[in-house]
Amino acid sequence: MSLVTGRIALGAAGLAAAAFGGWHLVENGRLVAVLVWLVAAVAVHDGIVAPATLVVTATAARFVRGRARRPVLVAFVLLGTVTATAVPVLGGWGRRADNPTLLDRHYLLGWWAFAAVVVLGTSLGGVLGRVRRGPSREGSS
Amino acid sequence: MSHRAGARPLDRGGDAVSGLGPRRLVRRPRVADFTSTLRSERVTSRVGLWLGVCFGVAFLTGLISHNHYLAHPWLPLPTRPVWGYRVTQALHVLSGTAAIPLLLVKLWSVYPRLFEDPPRRPVGPVLRHLAERVSIAVLVAASLTQLATGLANESQWYPWRFSFRATHYALAWVAIGALLVHIAVKLPVIGRGLSAPPDDPAAARGNGATPSRRDLLRATWGAAGLAVVAAAGSAVPGLRRVSVFGVRTGSGPQGVPINTSARAADVVALALRPDYRLAVVHDGDTRTFSRTDLEAMVQRTHVLPIACVEGWSADGTWTGVRLRDLLDEVGAPREVRVRLRSLQPHGPFRVSELPANFVDDPLTLLALRLDGEPLALDHGYPCRLIAPNRPGVFQTKWLASVEVLG
User: What is the pLDDT of residues B299-347, one digit of tens each?
Assistant: First the structure.
């Protein structure tokens, strides 16, 4: 099978799978509620999350100079993306009075601990990297 | 990915990380405005590769879970390994968790393409551009929705009006299908990106101060790993202390968490009635057993996990009557299915069916005790089902009847 045939087969399989899912969505009913979520998910990412990331990084780039930039970038990626995975537990919207076994941590405290580990780790990494590389060698290999 | 812009010096108008100078924020952005040297085909394809792996794992383990929930499964459900569902569902939830940082970085790496001007003619490229745009819109929408709704479901937060399970299943096919189309379209670019040498403009400048693409990739892998460790404690007991974002610590009545309390199931009064009897229906006859009757039968103790669709799980030491022993007592033959009914007056899972291989399995118990004590009310007192390799929601609590189906 040539590469082109393989790509066509892969694309066709993908279209079939997506059509199968689409058919299920229609069968399930409540299609409008699902479409609202699909459109809102893209709108929130492309219209809020991504531009906000650019604004934060542009601001950071303006104020953070020199050797601090690398650890700051790493810390930003770690904090930003891992915090995104913690939004529901930090919000605690699923918590219920009759079930104390669910969401039974102090998540805000956990977030501060996580943030402290990231900041300490990246700072230490930055310092160690500088020591190892010396003042004038290149920085990323 | 703007290589043209990538060659610009750092200090003139753009920035290595954001690529957005403040004076450019007024008008609609163009591709050339994004000057970060961290974006490259290599970064996008490497992050995309691992994102694809996560989606593949989540899709396959999701199919396994879906199969467990079907009234008529496509694949026969095995009773071994006893921890099967525990592992596949933890993999499902954790691969989805790892995918969140990967997807965010991947979308960042291709964000400028959102502002690409479409070709004006000829018709061929215009149509191709449009088709690609539509397929990517579907892929991004389905991916973001799957990850967001899955994440919310783990903490039992349902900010929507559709059925989670039916929608998550349907969108999984949409997402995986759109992903296959995306891979088919991008295969040459992916091949180029994965085989490209690490051409790092930051490294080439050689001052060691500028963030490099390698820094970004390492941060991304680190973020995916940390997100998994921070969540995994709900399923992996050894990680409980460090999983600061785990939905459960694993504590609960008799050392096992619960999903539905007796109060939420409106079953408190019914479960505590002194004249409680378990009805066993076979061949038109009904025999009833009080808790004392059940306690008088041979008691067995097994360690079996409660493993839930939200990804959390916990081992319990259950003691009670082997289901097969009870069925022998009423003369039910082997290789029959049974229907279990809860005392619950409502709820979609108050009735469950147990396939014949589970019915005859020596580990399948009608549990009366957990951790050496009578079952807590929230764990299904007076009597509950506990079987190996079975989603928690089908481990029917507050049993009212066991009906032999033949």
Answer: 999 999 999 999 999 999 999 999 999 999 999 999 999 999 999 999 8
Three-class secondary structure of residue B266 per DSSP: coil
Contact B387, B361 (CB under 8 A): yes
Q: Tell me if B58 sits within 8 A of B168, measured CB to CB.
A: no
pLDDT of residue A59: 93
H or E stretch covering B307: strand B299-307
A24 in Cβ contact with B180 (< 8 Å) = no
* Distances, alpha carbon B85 to alpha carbons A137, B99, B221, B306, B364, in Å: 52, 21, 27, 9, 15
CB contact under 8 A, B245 and A107: yes
Pairing of strands B278-282, B285-289: antiparallel
ipTM of the complex: 0.93
Q: What pLDDT score was predicted for residue B11? A: 38
SS3 B7: coil
Looking at residue B17, its pLDDT comes to 55
Verify whether the Cβ–Cβ distance A103 to B172 is below 8 Å: no
* Helix, strand, coil share (%) of chain B residues, nearest 5: 50, 15, 40
d(CA B380, CA B271): 8
Instruction: Enumerate the residues of chain B whose CB falls inside 8 A of the CB of residue A17.
Output: 173-174, 176-177, 180
Reduced to 3 states, what is the DSSP secondary structure of residue B286?
Answer: strand
DSSP lists the bridge partners of residue B316 as B304
Looking at chain A, list the stretches that DSSP marks H as alpha helix, in order from N- to C-terminal side.
Answer: 3-28, 31-44, 50-63, 69-85, 87-91, 107-133
Residue B74 scores a pLDDT above 70: yes
Mean pLDDT to the nearest integer, B19-27: 56
Q: Indicate which of B12, B17, B312 best probes the interface with A, i.e. most A CBs within 10 Å of its own CB.
A: B17
Spatial contact of A103 and A95, defined as CB atoms under 8 Å apart: yes
Chain centroid to CA B199? 37
B278 near B402, Cβ under 8 Å?
Answer: yes
Q: Among B171, B39, B58, which Cα is nearest to B106's? A: B39
Count how many pairs of residues, chain A against chain B, have C-beta atoms within 8 Å: 289
